[in-house]
Amino acid sequence: MLLDACFDNQDLNSPRSNLRTVEYLKAIAQAAGLDLDARRRNPTGEGIHNKMVLAQIGGRGRAVVGNLNGGEVFSAKQNREMALLIGSYAVYGYLADVFWYDWDVTP
Question: What global pTM score does this model have?
Fold first, then answer.
């Protein structure tokens, strides 16, 4: 999971900080034996606002992209936000390349 480091909560001790979220996710993954990692990054210098899920299911690439926030109150019920599921290995491959570049290269 790649979380924003640019516009992160300035109080890094706040439970709403992405730094604390990264620590929390890593602790849960380790305790449960999950293959999951998380980092904070700022690949563009302008922050991350992407919401994306990439998966290979049955050898086929899937990408969910959009702007559906995780909060129940203002996202799915009050705003007209959306996300698209795209079944395309070309789209999956392109977005995976961007993700891994941001994961590995940016500080």
Answer: 0.78
